[in-house]
Design brief:
Blueprint lengths: L11 H8 L3 H12 L1 H4 L11 H10 L10 E5 L7 H7 L4 E6 L2 H14 L4 E5 L2 H4 L5 E7 L4 H8 L3 E10 L4 H14 L2 E9 L8 E8 L10 H4 L4
Parallel strand pairs: 1-2, 1-4, 2-3, 4-5
Antiparallel strand pairs: 5-7, 6-7
Length: 230
């Protein structure tokens, strides 16, 4: 990776494909992640050298699942993965970064302001507390919790017929087989494994995509059952 946040040579073509004319803004985001993100303990120091392939490109390819002008809630946004990356790659998306920890909210707020991501809103809170207050067409989560808990927390935030996009990597198939009944109980259906970025990145991002039952209403979900578990 370049000192200015630009992608390494082996990732340059994929980065240009995914970010286009916004590639300089993506490099600016990378400087945030590898600078303040590491300094404030949101990103592990060993991740700096693999920030582009393992994190930025891995998150950006998930945008292929999202229709134009969609609303998105990124649950447990942390350092903004995938929410900030998607906001840079897809300026048409209206994104809410939902994060309970104050120091992470401060980082996200400062990064959003510096990157001038006007379509992004940062909200401090837990997913189970925001059901009935926030909703979106798509709800994302990366490295937050096992799928059964994600479904309980995230599906109440999705509009009927909307999607939960859970970034899971190599654990995706096993998690889906283990938790598919729990997902259905939480109002999810039509679950599938999707590999995003094939032909663009060397290692496609593996995600579980669950559609919320169109008959399920927006609501508070299993807030009482989950209270105190996060």
């Amino acid at each position: 990776m370049g000192a200015d946040g630009t992608p390494p040579e082996e990732n340059a073509a994929a980065a240009l494909t995914l970010f286009g004319e916004r590639l300089p803004l993506a490099a600016q985001l990378v400087r945030w992640l590898t600078g303040p993100g590491i300094e404030r303990g949101l990103i592990g120091p060993r991740e700096a050298d693999r920030m582009w392939p393992r994190h930025v490109l891995n998150c950006a390819v998930v945008g292929e699942l999202m229709e134009p002008d969609a609303t998105v809630i990124d649950v447990g946004s942390g350092a903004g993965l995938p929410g900030l990356v998607l906001a840079v790659a897809r300026p048409d998306l209206r994104i809410t970064l939902l994060e309970p920890l104050e120091r992470r909210v401060t980082f996200l707020t400062e990064a959003v302001e510096d990157l001038a991501l006007h379509q992004v809103t940062v909200v401090r809170g837990r997913a189970e507390e925001q059901a009935g207050r926030l909703s979106a067409r798509i709800v994302t989560a990366r490295a937050v919790a096992p799928l059964d808990r994600l479904a309980r927390w995230c599906l109440p935030l999705a509009e009927p017929g909307g999607l939960l996009v859970a970034m899971k990597g190599s654990s995706a198939e096993a998690e889906w087989e283990t938790h598919r009944a729990a997902v259905r109980k939480s109002g999810g259906r039509d679950g599938r494994i999707s590999r995003c970025g094939a032909g663009v990145v060397d290692e496609p991002a593996t995600v579980i995509v669950v559609r919320k039952d169109e008959g399920a209403a927006l609501g508070r979900g299993s807030r009482a059952a989950d209270k105190g578990r996060r």
